[in-house]
Amino acid sequence: MSREQLVELARRTISHARAGTVPQAEAVLEVPATNYFDPGRWRLEMDRIFKRVPLTLGFSGELSEPGDYRAVDVAGVPVLMVRGTDGVARLFVNTCSHRGAQIMEAGTGNTRRFTCPYHAWSYDPEGALVGILDRDEFGEIDTSCHGLTELPCEERAGLIFGGLTPGAELHLDDFLCGYESMLDTLGLADCNVVGRQSVEGPNWKVAYDGYLDFYHLPILHKDTFGPDYSNKAIYDAWGPHQRVTSPDHRILAWADSPEDEWSMRRINSGVWTIFPHISIARFDVDGGPIFMLSQLFPGADPDTSVTTQHFLAPFEPTDEQQQGIEKQMDFLLHVVRDEDYYTGRRIQAALKTGAKSHVMFGRNEAGGQRFHGFVDSLVAAEDDAAYRAVLARSEAVFQP
Question: What pTM was estimated for this model as a whole?
Answer without folding.
Answer: 0.95
